[in-house]
Write a structure and sequence with these properties.
Chains A, B: Belongs to the HypE family. Chains A, B: This is Hydrogenase expression/formation protein HypE. Chains A, B: It comes from Gluconacetobacter aggeris. 2 copies of one chain form a homodimer. Chain A has 9 helices and 14 strands. By secondary structure, chain A is an alpha+beta fold. Chain A folds into 2 domains: about 160 residues, 60s Ribosomal Protein L30, Chain: A, CATH 3.30.1330; about 160 residues, PurM-like C-terminal domain (Phosphoribosyl-aminoimidazole Synthetase, Chain A, domain 2, Alpha-Beta Complex), CATH 3.90.650.10. In chain A, strands 9-11-8-12-10-13-14 form a 7-stranded mixed sheet. A 4-stranded mixed sheet of chain A has the order 2-7-5-6. The first copy, chain A, has a two-stranded antiparallel sheet with strand order 3-4. The radius of gyration of chain A is 21 Å and the shape is globular. The two termini of chain A are about 30 Å apart. Strand 1 of chain A pairs antiparallel with strand 2 of chain B, so a sheet runs across the interface.
Chain lengths: ~350, ~350
Amino acid sequence: MSDHTIPGVGADGRITLAHGGGGTAMRALIDGVFLRAFSDDPAAPQEDQARFAMADLAALGDRLAFTTDSFVVDPLEFPGGDIGTLAVCGTVNDLAVGGARPVALSAAFILAEGLDLAVVRRIAASMAACARAAGVRIVTGDTKVVPRGACDGLFVTTTGIGVIRPGCAISIASGRPGDVVIVNGMLGDHGAAILCARGDLALDVTLGSDCAPLNGLTEALLDAVPDVRCMRDATRGGLAGVLTELAEASLVTVRIDEAALPVRPEVAGVCEILGLDPLYLANEGKLAAVVPAAAADVALAAMRAHPLGRDAAVIGRLETAAPGRSAVHLANRFGGQRVVSMPSGEQLPRIC
Amino acid sequence: MSDHTIPGVGADGRITLAHGGGGTAMRALIDGVFLRAFSDDPAAPQEDQARFAMADLAALGDRLAFTTDSFVVDPLEFPGGDIGTLAVCGTVNDLAVGGARPVALSAAFILAEGLDLAVVRRIAASMAACARAAGVRIVTGDTKVVPRGACDGLFVTTTGIGVIRPGCAISIASGRPGDVVIVNGMLGDHGAAILCARGDLALDVTLGSDCAPLNGLTEALLDAVPDVRCMRDATRGGLAGVLTELAEASLVTVRIDEAALPVRPEVAGVCEILGLDPLYLANEGKLAAVVPAAAADVALAAMRAHPLGRDAAVIGRLETAAPGRSAVHLANRFGGQRVVSMPSGEQLPRIC
């Protein structure tokens, strides 16, 4: 179906308020763009809900996981991904780092009147491709259109359900003194890519977002090390956000080694120029895993054997903290020590 | 916690970009407003996902239902509700009309920089109250903040999971010739209320939205009439939208009687003045149920016994349609007939 056969889209190929009105124009947009991209059976009667046999879910594990995120990234498209891949990866990863196998996603779109339909098509296509790569289906959704000026282009909210494997007891509060912290690769790529893509920094660097679904990697890690204590994806707030939460929730000191942090020279360069710290930059395909020290080598090997974990590295260790003194300590390259504080505000608005 | 003790909120009590940054200001907003309103245990470690024992879900039924909606209503607050009650009711109702018992909701907020924190608090409080009334918990969420001008106040996306009772086979495609169509009460209240609340029509009428969670009503109906064919809540696109979808999916003619449609005189008056049709006005607490003719009296009695079904009425009947001739026919008060077409565009932008 070409853009022109979707009622409500004019010769200029742009979204109109009619596409959010609950009538024929909206149906045409959903059928012609979203169902066409996401559904195995676009002609099936459209119910307002997706359904799953409980027996099929129970065959995957003993607990259901449920998570949601809105995405408002600016620009909508950037090297390495777009708002759609970000949304699919973000929700898949929130499920995966909790030990869940992602089963299905919903996708709710808020579109601005005047948005180019071709952009919507590209974003839907990349969401579909990303979902396929993650082995997850986009099964239900919603479309709203707001007048020009009431929303900046396109926002999408993805919600995911997944099933947690039996016996898996991952929690941000489960870190123990002696455990090691591993990351699966280069830090800060997404934040640096968005910064460069905004184009107002006159940086002559093209960096790609690390946006990727991590469920294959987390499955491999859990297969190798069933007693992983905790995993978290290091999105907004970066690795600093994850580690400060870990220290607080697990009542430990997290001691990390700056020299061990994997950071691309280009990202380090961008950070140096702009006075940013890669520890606080957002990632969209990076996680921190906490594992018992005895399992560190096995965990590292399992991660490195996966394409998304080739640069995995042990970056630190958990230690006993005096009551009320949980914190993250960083040993810098010159032998000094500093406390890594929780990010306070917004380094980069609309990073995801 | 007063507004002033939430970091990032100035003396003017307004949201700043820091509240979406993934750091301490965002944590404070989530802890001080959202968890305070929604959580039984606000001090528990914050995981990025909510979890449910599969055995508890399986005890409720044999299928999981999953549905999502974004809400962009303007104004945010109106007689009879606000964007928060709308979001909770909308998602609860999408689950309920599929025969599911709602179990849990997620809530993802997109806030504009400069939004009054007091508004956010009020909306969170009414979501919590509405969720309590519906017997459902808000278990996970997300908060993004976009710069002034990139979003018009506050958008919220709610996603729900529920469990469908065994044997329930409700579908928009299940209507059969001979079945009757029942609505649970007055039509068009929400659409008319929003129109009046916008204040640019100089109408001297105050109408309240009918915004309400319908799961109690649907449970009562399904208890009385287990073989309900189909239920749909008549939101965007109004009853006309639901009935035209029903005719198309079930391959039937839907014949309705204008004189039988329950419409408040005030709503009929607003429609007359503005040239609108109550059939197309949005509802947020109204559903159409299709039941076998033999069960019509029992269904009607069950609905009328419920506070949200006191004005329930049989409004029409399904008839055999010649192939390709499915449609909705309305018999008007003067003995005439007209075809009710699917809504095409947007009568009232940002109605939900």
